[in-house]
Structures are given as C-alpha cells and as structure tokens.
Write a structure and sequence with these properties.
783 residues, 6-stranded mixed beta sheet, 32 helices
C-alpha cells in the first residue's frame, strides 16, 4: 500500500514516520509512506520522483499547502493521476488544491457548485452560527439540513476559508466540538464520505502520534480494498486542549495559569532544595517571558527545539510561560495566559499601590476575545516571543496585520519572532550564502515584520538526516542572553544604564563626522542628551550642539592623527583576548592592529564619554573606493579597527544598549547571510548580545529592512525634512540680478556704472577681484 503526504512545516514528519513503522509492525500491511515538505524547493530530479510516487499512490494527503510554485506544479500531477488514486484528502490548503478533494462520492469541486446553488438562508456556519445543541439536533433529526451545513463549510474551505477573527472562532470550535459531534452523524448513505472527511480532519486537528497513525489507517480502511484492513479497529480521535501552557519538565499541559503557576512554584522550591544556587525565577511579571508555541509541534512530540530555547532562557534566570497557541490566531493564548483581567476598581487600587498595569478600554466581542470595557489587563510577562513561524493573526492561511498591530499595541509588551527551519534543513541553511530560502523569508520573517516583530533569529530546525526539529544551542543561548539584556533595560535604575550612541564618518574626514541622510545629527544628539538626562540617566550635557561637535572633533585628535577625539587605546593583547574572531580577521587584514584606526601598535576607539553615555564614531568599511565590496563578497571580514570598536562598546565600556544615529552605518552590510544569520555572520558577531536601536529615515524602508534583519535593529523612524531648491539669497541674489542687467545693457555708461556695482558687491561677498589693468570684460569673467 502506498500513501503520499504533501505538507508544510516540521511537526508532521516525525509522527508520520512513527505511524508507518507502527502500522507495518502491528498489521503487516507493507505500507510505504512517502513524504514531501512543499515548503522547500525541489530539483527537477526530485519532481520526477514525486511524479513516480503519485503514479503509485493509493491515497494522497495534501496538508497546509497555501501557495507557491510547488503548489502550482502539484495541481496538474493530481489531475493526471486522478484515476489512480482511491482518495485525495486535502486539508487547510489553497482553494485550487481544496477542490481536488475526492473520497468515494464526496467531490469538493462538484460539492462547491451544489452549495452555491442552495438558498442563502440554508447556509449555516458549522460550529459558529449553530450552537452545540442545535448542531446535534440537526445531525440526529435532519440529515439533509446537516448535509447543507457541511456542504457550506466545504464550500468555504474550497474557496479558501475566511479571514479575521471569524476564522479563529471557526478553528477553535472545530478543535473543541468536532470529535464529540461526529457521533451523531450517520455512517451510511449520503453522509458517509462527508463524515469520513470530517473524521480525518478531526485526527489532523489533534495531531498526536496516535491520531496521525489513526488518520492514515482510517483513509486506508475506508478507501482501499484489502482484506487485511477489514479487521483493523481504528480508535476515535483523542483530544488535547486547543490552548494551554506547556513546559518540558511538566507531566501534562496546563489549561489555566493558576495550575501552571502552582506547579512552577513547587518545581522551583524542589529545585532550590536540591541546589540552593538555582536562580529563583518565580513568574515575576517583570522577569517572565511569554513564549508562543505551535500547537501541532507540542501535541505531536516534535518539540525538542522548543525545549532547548526554554531551557536556555531559564538558564539566564528568567521565568517562562510557554503557551501553545492555535494555528490560526495567537490572541487567544495571549489573552488567556499573558495578561490577567481585573476589575477597574481593583486596577485603580493596585495602580495606586505602585503596581504596573497595562490597561485597555476596548470593548469585548465574541470574535476578538478582548476583556470587557469595565475590565483592565495586568500583564504577567515582560516580553513576548513567537516561535510559531506564522503571522500573529491568520496563521499560514492569511495575514491580518492590522488586527495584530491593534492587539499588540493594546498589550504594549515588546514582541519578537524567531525562526524554526520548517521549509529547509539545518544543513541547507548553514551551507546557503543567502541563509533562509524565499519561502522561509516570506512566511517567517517578512509577514511577522508586518505585525511588528523584530530579531528574526534562527533557533532550530530539522537536520538533513533527522525527522524532528532540534535546537541550535548557540542560537538559543544568543536569543536568551539578548532577552536578558532587554530585561535589564526594563528593570534597572536609569542612572545605572550605559548607552552608546554611534555616529558615522564617510568618507573619513572631519567634515563628514555625524553625517546621516536627512538628519541634523548634532542638533538631534544634543536634544536627545537633554531628554535622557531629564529622565534620570547619568549624562553630562554640553552647552550646545556646536560645543558637542567641537568636543568630538578636537580633544586629543591631533596627538593621535585621528579624525576625532580618541576615547580609548586598545592594546593588541587585550583586543585578542576580548575579540574571539581576531585570528580570522588577520587572514584578510594582516596582524593586529593593522593600518586602520591604529596608532603606535594600539587600536584607537574614537569618540567621547559623557557620564554613562559614550558617543562613538563607527570606523569606515576599509575599502573606501568600493564601500559595497564587503557586502557583495562571499567571504571577507571587517578590519581590526571595526571589530575593536564594537568589542570596546560591549566588553570594555559595557554598554547596556547601542543606538545607531541616522541613515546609515556599515554594521548591517558586513559579510554574512542575507537573512537568518548564523554565528559565523559578521553583523551577528559584532552586535553580539547588545540591544540595538536604530534611528532611521522613514523614506528608506529597503535598507531599514536590512538593518532589522541583519543587525537585529529596532527602528525608530524620523521624517525627512521638507526640501525645495534653495536658490540664491541675500547679497548673492542682488549680485546675480546686477550681472544680468550688465549683460543685457547696450549703453556703455550704464554698463560701467553696473560694473562698478558688481565689483563692490563681489568684494562684499568675498569674491576675488582682479588687479587693475585688465579690461572690464576680463575682470567680470574672472569675477
């Protein structure tokens, strides 16, 4: 028996392989289960193998395939082998694929046409417009009414479903209601194949290893003629919570925050009793990270990459609330586990007591799940990190960034999204000079960016020879430490925080210090310093923007032959000790300190320190005649001076945050992957664990996107100033008018008078006037 499964993601491969092994061991069916992740690109040879497998398949499953070139190539193959397949089962896919669903007498393409001819009043919304009781009565008393309800839902599926909060309500109610409601549907007659499809969907919605095994057996038993199948008893779907809290050390899922909190605190007490040095991370809202996990990964046991990140975060002394969210919408999990609804009166009381409360005045609806207007929300987490790889609202089917932004703005909690390699293997990502493939970049980076997510770190994926995701330990540690750095910015006293402000100088000379597109850098810096001092940061503010410029340009710069003041001289031994990549740089730039930003055997860090604020000047690329050379090169490194600058910021000055001022610097253009960077990429190495805030021009989203993806920048936009042609002004305008009058005049006396005026105005404007003896025309030309 041959079954081919096309899917997208990383949660199904392991339970499918387990199902194949267990079915063959227990039932001796000689089952061959072929699997293809349509999120990954295929070569022509691989497509030839796919066509062979489709030609030999008894049953075909297509799951979660929403769009793309692979879907377009699959469609004609399904049509070509239509007569070969006993059943084609398409679940949660793009409309054209949904129409290929065929099981016995159930044909989605034909059913959709029938459904559209029906009366609108008869088109009940399965699981939404009907209550449980009404739905049960329809199934028991009127199969025709029930069939119309099912038909309308099939119609919506074939046309791609619907978007927005209604899609979430549908999904949640399907997960919760469908298994118990199916017992009222007849097993024979017109509804038999419809019931079988719904049963297969029920298994898929609860993708535990047992349910995936049952899904394969159910399809074979009902649509493949083989005596060995008749005696097999396929168990009913086992159910799991639609939203819950998961933890790798817990024996079960938690359906309420209270039960999770009780277990978590007991776990901490037990751990501390065994090891008193254990970090006391006790779900304090100020030090707890909310994680959004994919439900299929958790209940299918494909979760080792999640476990690795959870343990890395807890290893930094932070608590976690890992919430499994629905496939289509993360708002449900956030509302249930990351915030606590409280009465307004209680909220005012607690606010008066000094507790931080995130409030909203949004009215509740049955669709969006928000708390009612007479309630407020108190946060349980300080940061939210999505591990789902899909849009915050919409999942793989669609993206409602407007709804996501509205909800996240109301929460007012930092939101980040990290990447699991669902459409390529770890090995292919490591080997790729571009990093993430186009499917991964679009689905797991670009779409979350529309929701406002930042810091797209890769944290895990499936190895080339593996069947389930594994964590990337170095990436998990980097994510955890950056979360700890952001946590410090939230909780530390402001006068204890150190800030680095980075300016640019290209081409390198004093006239180009503090250059940025459409931004008056020194005036902006002066204003910024005054503001943060008023907010309690420890900083010495110069008297004016001009004084700030003078302090930076002069100071000890002449002594070192530098462009600006030198804040620190980094000895080579110290540089080698603090910068783990110095040896790699020497292969391209020679022995440290090199020739750039160095003096008498030491590396120069240029800038000035004003209290707890360091204003540093970013070194140049090193290839001033070809500044894009490093970006376009497949190899290469930054020079020693560039590496020393960021080494000083993080490990000597010990900044808590770096702020790049204006559009734009060179950090994000250093060699490495385009997106989905690894620990071998230079922007990742240089920024390290430093939170990076980038003041960026709003009119340059393309390069701003590069900064976000390659240096993990949080962009703060500034508007471009209104600009028009300046023209001439004051004495220059008068001089121009006089010269024009001179040229147009034919009266020699008037021309002599005008020329005298031109000489006088030219002198006032500091133009050079030729010596006497030259003709007036020669003198005018010279002027």
């Amino acid at each position: 028996m041959n079954v081919t499964v096309f899917y997208v993601g990383s949660s199904l491969l392991a339970p499918l392989r387990t199902a194949e092994r267990d079915i063959n061991r227990e039932h001796a069916l000689d089952l061959s289960l072929r699997t293809y992740n349509l999120g990954a690109p295929f070569t022509e040879n691989e497509w030839a193998e796919i066509e062979i497998d489709l030609g030999e398949s008894d049953v075909v499953f297509v799951i979660h395939v929403m769009d793309g070139e692979n879907a377009g190539r699959l469609l004609p193959l399904l049509d070509r082998y239509r007569k070969t397949h006993h059943a084609v089962i398409v679940i949660n896919c793009m409309p054209e694929l949904m129409r290929r669903t065929r099981m016995g007498k159930l044909d989605f393409a034909r059913l959709m046409r029938i459904s559209r001819k029906g009366a609108k009043a008869q088109r009940k919304n399965l699981g939404n417009e009907l209550s449980d009781q009404e739905y049960e009565e329809a199934a028991k008393q009127s199969p025709a009414t029930f069939l119309r309800s099912v038909t309308h839902w099939f119609d919506r599926q074939a046309r791609g479903g619907k978007s927005g909060s209604g899609h979430r309500a549908d999904y949640l109610k399907w997960v919760d209601r469908l298994p118990r409601l199916l017992r009222f549907v007849p097993n024979a007659g017109a509804l038999r194949d419809a019931k079988n499809y719904l049963l297969l969907v029920s298994y898929f919605l609860q993708p535990t290893p047992r349910n995936i095994r049952s899904m394969i057996l159910c399809a074979l038993k009902n649509y493949v003629s083989d005596e060995r199948l008749t005696s097999i008893d396929v168990p009913a779907p086992e159910t799991m919570p639609s939203v819950a809290i998961y933890h790798p050390d817990a024996p079960r899922l938690f359906e309420s925050f209270a039960t999770y909190e009780n277990w978590y605190l007991k776990r901490i007490s037990k751990t501390k009793a065994q090891n008193p040095k254990t970090n006391d991370s006790s779900l304090d809202p100020n030090s707890t990270i909310g994680l959004l996990l994919m439900r299929p990964q958790i209940i299918s046991n494909a979760r080792k990459h999640y476990d690795g990140l959870i343990r890395a975060i807890e290893g930094e002394g932070l608590s976690v609330i890992p919430a499994i969210a629905t496939l289509m919408d993360n708002r449900e999990g956030c509302e249930k586990f990351f915030v606590e609804s409280i009465e307004v009166k209680e909220g005012r009381k607690q606010k008066a007591e000094g507790r931080k409360i995130a409030a909203t005045d949004q009215k509740a609806t049955t669709d969006n799940g928000l708390v009612t207007a007479d309630e407020q929300r108190k946060r349980r987490v300080s940061q939210i990190v999505s591990l789902t790889g899909f849009s915050f609202v919409g999942g793989p089917a669609m993206n409602d960034s407007e709804a996501a932004a509205k909800f996240l703005n109301e929460l007012n909690i930092p939101f980040r999204s990290v990447v699991s390699l669902d459409a390529q293997t770890i090995d292919s990502w490591r080997a790729s000079p571009t990093g993430l493939n186009p499917v991964q970049t679009g689905m797991q980076v670009a779409i979350p960016e529309l929701d406002g997510a930042t810091e797209p770190f890769v944290f895990g994926g499936i190895p080339e020879r593996g069947v389930e995701p594994a964590p990337l330990d170095d990436r998990c540690q980097r994510i955890a430490r950056r979360l700890k750095r952001w946590h410090r910015l939230q909780v530390a006293e402001r006068d204890q925080l150190k800030i680095t402000l980075v300016l640019y100088c290209f081409p390198p000379n004093k006239g180009n210090i503090g250059t940025a597109a459409d931004l008056d850098v020194f005036a902006s810096l002066f204003d910024l310093l005054g503001r943060i001092k008023a907010q309690g940061y420890e900083v010495t503010v110069p008297e004016s923007a001009d004084e700030l410029r003078t302090m930076l340009l002069n100071g000890n710069s002449e002594r070192f032959g530098a462009t600006t003041n030198v804040a620190h001289c980094l000895k080579v031994d110290e540089y080698r000790r603090l910068c783990p990549f110095a040896n790699e740089i020497e292969k391209d730039w020679g022995a440290a300190p090199g020739k750039i930003n160095s003096y008498e055997g030491e590396l120069l860090v240029q800038g000035i320190q004003l209290g707890n604020v360091f204003i540093g000047v970013q070194p140049t690329f090193g290839y001033e005649g070809d500044p894009m050379r490093l970006l376009m090169a497949k190899g290469g490194t930054p020079h020693h001076g560039f590496a020393a600058f960021y080494t000083y910021i993080e490990k000597i000055f010990e900044a808590d945050v770096v702020v790049h001022v204006g559009t734009h610097g060179a950090l994000e253009f250093m060699p490495g992957k385009q997106v989905g960077l690894s620990s071998g990429c230079w922007p990742d190495r240089l920024i390290g664990e430093l939170p990076n805030i980038y003041i960026y021009s709003v009119n340059n989203p393309s390069e701003g996107t590069i900064a976000r993806r390659r240096s993990y920048a949080e962009l703060i936009s500034y508007l471009t100033p209104p600009i028009e042609n300046a023209g001439l002004y004051k004495g220059l305008a008068e001089l121009k008018d006089t010269i024009n009058s001179y040229r147009q005049s034919t009266n020699e006396a008037e021309r002599e008078r005008l020329f005298s005026s031109i000489e006088e105005l030219g002198g006032q404007m500091n133009f050079t006037v030729p010596e006497d003896g030259a003709s007036s025309q020669q003198r005018l030309s010279s002027l």
